[in-house]
Amino acid sequence: MTMRMTALPPTPKPGRPTAESSERAHPSRGSVDSGADAAPDLQADAAPVYDWTALALPASPQAAGNFRRHALNAVRRWGLHRESGETIEACVSELVTNAIVHGVGRDVLMMLYYTGDSVLTEVFGHAVDEPAIPATARSDNAESGRGLLIVETLAKDWGSEHTGLGLLRVWASIAVFGSE
User: What is the pLDDT of residues 6-25, one digit of tens each?
Assistant: First the structure.
């Protein structure tokens, strides 16, 4: 399935790499890893994408762990600091869990873009309603509903939109610093 991104959050750096693709597909896992010379078709005003990766899995409770592992493998490959990796892992966990729990489709797609100073996380799933932070999530007594509050706290920015392809795109831009 080919999926075209419809919009990205605004970023201060113009341009992106434009070389031809040299993707390494992993069909058994439904994932694609790509080097700096294979940036996906993003908006021209987006930050340069130095590397990216994607993983698509059936929506199931077990899938969340696979998405987290995939994100951590990318963080290691990019040489990011451990704390940045933990933040990315937490955001990925919350976004894919929301797509699995609240989605109405069978599959979830996660894409990660490394831009040098941040990682853009996108999760696509079939959903009727856009996600919102429940008012009860901000309560000290809340037992659930804190996922997007966690994302809001950890990410530089986040948002959601319907793509026009029957999918809901939920994204988070996560600042990264240093390397291990």
Answer: 334 333 333 333 222 223 33
